[in-house]
Amino acid sequence: MAMMRLRREDPRVVGSFRLHRRLGAGGMGVVYLGADKRGQRVALKVIRPELAEDQEFRSRFAREVSAARRIRGGCTARLVAADLEAERPWFATQYVPGPSLHDKVAEDGILPAAEVAAIGAALAEGLVAVHEAGVVHRDLKPSNILLSPKGPRIIDFGIAWATGASTLTHVGTAVGSPGFLAPEQVRGAAVTPATDVFAFGATLAYAATADSPFGQGSSEVMLYRVVHEEPDLIGVPDALAPLVYACLAKDPEERPSTVQLSDRLAEIATREARGLATIRQPRPERPTGRRAEEYAQQRTERGAVASNGGRPATGSSGGAASATGGGAGAGAAGGGTGERVGRPAGRTPSGRGAAARTPAARTPAGRTPTGRTPAGRTPANRRPVAPDPRRRLLRQRVFVFVIVTLLAAICIAVLQAV
After folding, report:
1. E strands, 52-182, where?
2. Which contiguous run of DSSP H or E holds residue 198?
3. What is the pLDDT of residues 79-137, one digit of tens each?
4. Does this model's pTM top 0.70?
5. How far apart are CA 342 and CA 175, in angstroms?
6. Which domains, and CATH codes, for the chain?
7. What 3-state DSSP class applies to 171?
8. Annotated binding site for ATP
């Protein structure tokens, strides 16, 4: 959250709190960063002088502060202290470090579906606690949601409203942010928890698209769109679009409850996070060159061991079975003669002697029927080492260098002779 120096007209001490910085200013008053004698930091809002003189506002302010005291839950900025009888009423809430959702999107761009769903699930859970306390926020929007290290926090619980729970202070003028107001607020009807659900849907759409679902324009244009036009959800991820559209229903009765939103968004966040982890999971590196040959040989040898009941396959001479040829391909054969250790010579695993003898064509490559390696041939289990391509390339470069040098020397000699 951006901080500014105190101005000359700003107070230095309010109640038991010493003020250090300006956090922001709005239509209701100025918000300061303050601290008490124990060092506890608070966000302290001082009401504007013209509002402090309005008795109707003071009454409304007192009711809102009383309601805010009843809110319990980790997704809200806890009310610490307030003075309703001061010349300029003020209240202090727990200071929440971290940017607002509005600033986060403005600086870093739109958020991925998994993050939007996770923030939405936590906010919906916080709204459950707010509504259970008998409070309707009435001004939920991205700038009133702070992203702290411990999760999102909701601030400014409708205290900025200078009149009653309806929405119009003057004819044709709505109090709040036009792109996030519910249709019943624009019409001047009574607000309910469903009013916050509408603003909640518009807030999720903003996090996913960096814009209000009703676009931009003057207050009159925005309010008309809220009441009469459908929201524009182009850019909202498919996993979130149906739920956001349900929140933005014109009829409050058709909107989901905050409990339903919390459960559904938690499911979406988990599913999207798993999908993202699957996409980002790196593929194992495949060996190449000589490593590929060794890898294939190891796989073949392990397969031969597994087919022999976990025991290493052996030939008639007691050596290990070859990784190539009929020994490994037969699956049941372990030695050069194609016989399994422990079985009578001349019999196959089926016990039929007619097929017990191993044809010469099935003798492992590179080995004689006696198990000896023919002269001048490399054993099959000892592959010839492939020449290093880097050495070959180095020799080629040296050869080219020598040729070019000789040609250059000849040319120089010819030129000197001329």
Report:
1. 79-83, 90-94, 145-148, 151-154, 168-170, 173-174
2. helix 193-209
3. 899 998 899 999 999 898 889 999 999 999 999 999 999 999 999 999 998 888 888 88
4. no
5. 92
6. 1-95 (3.30.200.20), 98-277 (1.10.510.10)
7. coil
8. 45
